[in-house]
Amino acid sequence: MSNPCDHSSLPIHKKLLDHLRDALLFVDERGEIVEWNQPAKELLDISVVQPTSIYSYFDFDQLIVDEDVQRLMKVIDGSGRQLSVKVLGLNCNNKKLYCLSLQDSSFYDRIKELRQQIHQFMDSSLEGMVLHDNGIIVECDDTFAEILGYENEELLHKSVFDIVDPQYSRALKEKIDIIPNEPYEIAAVTKSGKRIHLEVMAHPYPYDNKILRGAVIRDITERVENEKRIEFMAYFDELTNLPNRTYFLQELMDVINQAQASGEMFAVYFMDIDYFKQINDTMGYVFGDKLLQSCARRLKYLQNEHTFLARMGGDEFLILQRYVKTKEEAEALAQEIIDQFQEPIHIDDFELFTSVSIGISLYPDDGQDANELIKHADSAMNVIKEHYRNDYKMFESSISKDFKSILTMETELRKALKEGQFELHYQPQKNIVTGRIVGVEALLRWNHPKEGFISPGTFIPLAEKTGLILEIGDWVMYEACRQNKQWQDEGYDPIIVGVNLSAKQFHQSDLVERVASILNKTGLQPSHLELEITESMAMSNEEDIIQTLEGLRDLGVYVSIDDFGTGYSSLKYLSRFPVNKLKIDKVFIQNRKQNEAIVKSIIHMSHSLDMKVIAEGVETEEQLTFLKNERCDEMQGFFYSKPLPPKHLNEMFQKQTV
Hints:
It contains 25 helices and 26 strands. It is an alpha+beta fold. The termini are far apart. It is 42% helix and 26% strand. β25 (612-616), α24 (621-629) and β26 form a beta-alpha-beta unit.
């Protein structure tokens, strides 16, 4: 021993000390080793050279802070070993001595056992491990330190509350004194200040007369952020960062529950950006997205603690305004919204003026549940959209009745298509010079099983709006071609059948292919089909129209412009279009005296462009004589025949054939 002393000063006889199995050593106030026994030498791995100071092994100053307390202390020899050390202060011969009781308590030996115990509670491989004494870290592994961005030594003796996010301190204090049966989550702050999320599986670690806390720590930051991202996507619109329809519905239902108890009145607004589709189609989807973002920003200016704003989808937005006392108060916010869009919106290098249409429903007068309130606000908005735009409208019960009527008719339309309730009537077209039938115009009729024949003016606009017109239009073209081929197969002279195309049909990118397919299926020659388009359709998008018309011409199908003279045609466009015939609108024929010069001009212009011309709506002999004198090519109208079902035309064809 390098520090011999008077053994009589020890509180225990030297021979007795050497016979004890417990590792003991005595230290004076300065940390100088007074005596130790053989087990202590072996435990501290003392070799030939024997240090005289306890500071060569432990942080003695920390040890004597609390006497008679079992502590896990790291041995200062670079081995990473830990010993359990208990200090007892003694007074011997008026001198202060400290008795240190040492036990082998290597953390890395025990941690394996702890890891196996905790593993059964975890779903995946364990990550960092930490051991703490009432919140003070006494040991941790490399992974735990790495997760938090520290070195192991920096974390020792550090309080876990120093690394936990302050928002979670209270929750951790509640958890730290119990042993949870399942993992719990907390947020922590790394050394660099980054906020991370951890999953903690705590486990007791019995040692001597106390229980230390062991914990397995897993970094779940990525999982938590993904969950938040998924939650955001579930409740927010990614483009505008506004709440979405799901979130709005949830909020609205909560407000309804509160209003039922309090008697509160509130308003729901359904807002739509005017002409958004046209802007999107013209400028592109990227521009359209930027417009939606700009509109969302403007709406946010009106947001306060009593309003809730959401994006319904597309160019539609929903607004909830609480504590509305009067109808006028609800209308005032609608006007504020409209006023927000009076100033132009700047996107890239464009300055764009846009407006909005708004429908309003009030709780409880216009609906008792969320879906009803939104539906009624939507219905009111559609009324504005169809007639005025850049305005608002309160919901009225009559709107709901009209809407139900439309819904009923839409259902009936789908049923009519499925059950074969549609039929075609054909109005003959005569060559004015020869008097022979040279063509027929196919006209759609709806023969409802209960209502009888329903006017096309009633159901065609609805079919256009719902998109059913495409399916109906395909049926009309197929049936007209099939019927014309049947007449030819029955031996009648070949004629041309005219079919009216809707705007939606005409602007289909695959129209030419569709027509070719129908001709192929029915066996009708392309030269016996004429497609009629309106003047406004022909002038809507010059380059695309020319491409479609040239495709039809190459196919061998004729094209005529219907209702000519009612639009704004340009001679330049007409000269470029591969069109075969112009059809003078009946309004010019029936008011001939006022429009005589116009009719003459159309006939002469058609011939100069090498087009035929046909007059519709001819009802008197005087009108026919005028057209004949002006060398109009063809005519149709009640003067010769009204539209007829196929079987009635058979008789006319028979007379003509004979």
